[in-house]
């Protein structure tokens, strides 16, 4: 509706085509580019192609499926590498912004720098990855202060997504009942993301954490600039980012 050129970057071609068809009912300028956030080579190839073809990047929205089995590498490291590779275009397109989708479940875990990619209990890994999204957002905002690029972490609410697909029929039925009663629709979940992408009101909260279209309070351990910097440096090493 705002005349934006929308690029959906994801691995699943079928899901991407469906999204493209839905968006084209409102905006014909939308396309799909393939990238696998679990594959660093795929991220680098996508970024190289994007920078060659696209002259602007005004808003970058990082979101991985809310799947407890998704590893720390996809939910954080993939987005960390992608964002850093696309930073030149974000800077050239300033004022621009980057949005990381996170979750309020960050509050249940702290980062363990002895084992960042901990994968024994999926829910623990998921919570840590969502905390990493917040720390990454804060450090990126500090790094880019005064350079025309702002960053925000967004908890969209608990959304009725399709993360339950791989599980048993009985489990899916039970969870669908819970989601129907307590979770919000995908459209409602997108409200805060869109708000942070287009509203000038968020500019004074660079690096902030948002939910329900307003800045929200973080636990003290999630606002530790030392931890955020340490995560950034560890992430640079893990993705071999010079």
UniProtKB/TrEMBL annotation:
Any Pfam family: adh_short
Recorded GO MF terms: oxidoreductase activity
UniProt key word Oxidoreductase: yes
Matching Gene3D superfamilies: NAD(P)-binding Rossmann-like Domain (3.40.50.720)
UniProt keyword terms in alphabetical order: Oxidoreductase
PANTHER family assigned to the protein according to its UniProt record, in alphabetical order: PHOSPHATIDYLINOSITOL-GLYCAN BIOSYNTHESIS CLASS F PROTEIN-RELATED, RETINOL DEHYDROGENASE 14
Similarity section: Belongs to the short-chain dehydrogenases/reductases (SDR) family.
Protein name in the entry: Retinol dehydrogenase 11-like
Organism of provenance: Sinocyclocheilus anshuiensis
Organismal lineage: Eukaryota, Metazoa, Chordata, Craniata, Vertebrata
Encoding gene per record: LOC107654602
């Amino acid at each position: 509706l705002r005349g934006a050129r929308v690029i959906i970057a994801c691995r699943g071609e079928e899901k991407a085509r469906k999204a493209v068809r839905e968006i084209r009912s409102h905006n014909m300028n939308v396309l799909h580019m393939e990238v696998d956030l679990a594959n660093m080579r795929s991220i680098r190839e996508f970024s190289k192609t994007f920078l060659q073809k696209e002259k602007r990047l005004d808003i970058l929205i990082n979101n991985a499926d809310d799947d407890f089995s998704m590893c720390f590498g996809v939910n954080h490291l993939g987005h960390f590498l992608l964002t850093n590779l696309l930073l030149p275009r974000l800077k050239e397109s300033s004022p621009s912004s980057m949005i990381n989708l996170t979750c309020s479940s960050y509050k249940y875990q702290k980062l363990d720098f002895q084992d960042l990619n901990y994968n024994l209990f999926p829910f623990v890994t998921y919570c840590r990855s969502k905390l990493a999204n917040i720390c990454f957002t804060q450090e990126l905002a500090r790094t880019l202060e005064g350079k025309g690029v702002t960053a925000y972490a967004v908890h969209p609410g608990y959304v009725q997504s399709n993360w339950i697909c791989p599980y048993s029929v009985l489990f899916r039925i039970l969870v669908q009942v819970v989601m129907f009663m307590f979770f919000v629709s995908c459209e409602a979940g997108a409200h805060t993301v869109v708000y942070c992408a287009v509203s000038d009101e968020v500019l004074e909260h660079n690096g902030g954490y948002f939910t329900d279209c307003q800045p929200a309070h973080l636990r003290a351990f999630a606002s530790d600039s030392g931890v955020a910097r340490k995560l950034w440096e560890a992430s640079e090493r893990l993705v071999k980012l010079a």
